[in-house]
Amino acid sequence: MIRRSVFAVVAPLVAIVVALLALGLGIGGERLLRDLSQSPGSVDDLVVAWRRGATIAGLVAVASVVAALVFAARKMRDNLTALREAVETRTDGDSHAAIPAGDVAEVAELTDAVARFAERSAERLEGVMRINNEQEAVLAGMAEGVLAIDVDRRVISLNRSAGKLLGVNPAEIMGRSLHEIVRNPELLKLVDQLLATKRPQEQDIVFRQADERVLQIRGTLLADALGHGFGAVFVLNDVSRLRRLENMRRDFAANVSHELKTPITSIKGFIETILDGATPEDAERFMRIVARQADRLDAIIDDLLSLSRIEKEAEASDIALTPTRLKEIVAGAVNDCHQKAEARQVTFDMDCSDEAKARVNALLLQQAVRNLLENAVKYSDVGGVVQLKVETLPDEVRISVTDRGCGIAPEHHARLFERFYRVDKARSRKLGGTGLGLAIVKHIVLAHRGRVTVESALGKGSRFTIHLPPWQQHAATGEDKRRTA
Fold first, then answer.
1. For 300-332, what is each residue's pLDDT tens digit?
2. What CATH number was assigned to the domain covering residues 245-316?
3. What's the pTM value of the predicted model, to 2 decimals?
4. Is residue 447 within 8 Å of residue 313, measured between CB atoms?
5. How is domain 319-485 classified at the CATH fold level?
6. Domain 143-238 belongs to what topology?
7. Tens digits of per-residue pLDDT, 150-205?
8. What is the rounded (10 degree) CA torsion for 95, 101, 104, 109?
9. 3-state secondary structure labels for all residues of the chain
10. Domain spans of the chain?
């Protein structure tokens, strides 16, 4: 596009008008002199005529100049209007809106400067947006919650994980005070301490909402390049599972120590009594008690080792599962418990079809069923019946063991499968239980990708049910895993 200066447009027009005016005045003056020489008597009329002509010529010249200026002004106005509209469009968010080139040189220089500024601003804005998007993506993908506030304790940033942990919607709380959205006094106190001391803070805080959560919160001061604080940022980690595992570990260590100490204390006491000079009859009786306690100690250690092995193999996926007929497994478990059942005159009622089949580890599943049967025998009345039933359903295979014994109160159901948990500790030890049988059942079933449930009521007996996936589904899952590995 050819850019022309306003002066370059107006000056030639003015020059032409001036030249035409001069030419007109010169021609008029010459005619006036000629007429004066020919008709001296009509001087006034000639002067009037000449003035009239000069006036008309002047008006024409002025009109021409005004027209030229109006034309130039309109060109400048059009260029400036186009430039203003383009700048407004970019201001409204369209950073790629074109800046018009302009055809007036004076405006075109301004247009070029604005265009260069707009391009550089767009590049900087795109860079800032890219960095912001990357940061948002990183924050959104973090498992840890990130919360940032200003010095007035207003939320300036909150990622999705933090919103989930605090039970709020990040899009709805931006700019709001932290006191409005968080009702936990310990967290608010932690925020106040950080902003007051300007030192990093760390604390485990319990949040009691729909479920109880333990959040590990680390806070640090937000500062600019000059070191001036303008807020604080907090990183939130859900350590509920870790704390539960730590509590379980402490409880397990305490329970193991207690369970092992009981028979050891008994063995030590009777041996000391024998060494102090017990009669032969008492010594023999004491030695039998020592032997029973030694057997109990051996059973606890065997169960602990078995439980540890099952957990380790399940985590490493080293437990081989193969399609197996369940009748052989449950029949083997019944045979293992036959002697104990006879001692209490308990009979078994087994209901399992020959076609019942599941993908299992035969030895482990037989151990799980045997543990359930032994419990049912121990807690059944003398002469009672224990029912063992296998059902093949479209979505699962069920192995249930039902007794008509004393039953279990509902408040104990949730903890029955914990290590060393006993409903009646005295009776359990008297009957020879180690407190690990149901825990072993649970981990064996989990290794088979199943679950175990209990239904029981005081005085009405109990039903323990092992739920396993149908063997076709289980086989397909294993095949899919092999194909994707």
1. 788 778 777 777 776 667 778 888 899 999 999
2. 1.10.287.130
3. 0.54
4. yes
5. Heat Shock Protein 90 (3.30.565)
6. Beta-Lactamase (3.30.450)
7. 988 898 888 888 888 888 887 788 888 888 888 888 988 999 899 888 889 999 98
8. 60
9. CCCECHHHHHHHHHHHHHHHHHHHHHHHHHHHHHHHHHCHHHHHHHHHHHHHHHHHHHHHHHHHHHHHHHHHHHHHHHHHHHHHHHHHHHHCCCCCCCCCCCCEHHHHHHHHHHHHHHHHHHHHHHHHHHHHHHHHHHHHHCCCEEEEEECCCEEEEECHHHHHHHCCCHHHHCCCEHHHHCCCHHHHHHHHHHHHHCCCEEEEEEEECCCEEEEEEEEEEEECCCCCEEEEEEEEEECHHHHHHHHHHHHHHHHHHHHHHHHHHHHHHHHHHHHCCCCHHHHHHHHHHHHHHHHHHHHHHHHHHHHHHHHHHHHCCCCCCEEEEHHHHHHHHHHHCHHHHHHCCCEEEEECCCCCEEEECHHHHHHHHHHHHHHHHHCCCCCCEEEEEEEECCCCEEEEEEECCCCCCHHHHHHCCCCCCCCCHHHHHHCCCCCCHHHHHHHHHHHCCCEEEEEEECCCEEEEEEEECCHHHHHHHHHHHHHHC
10. 6-119, 143-238, 245-316, 319-485
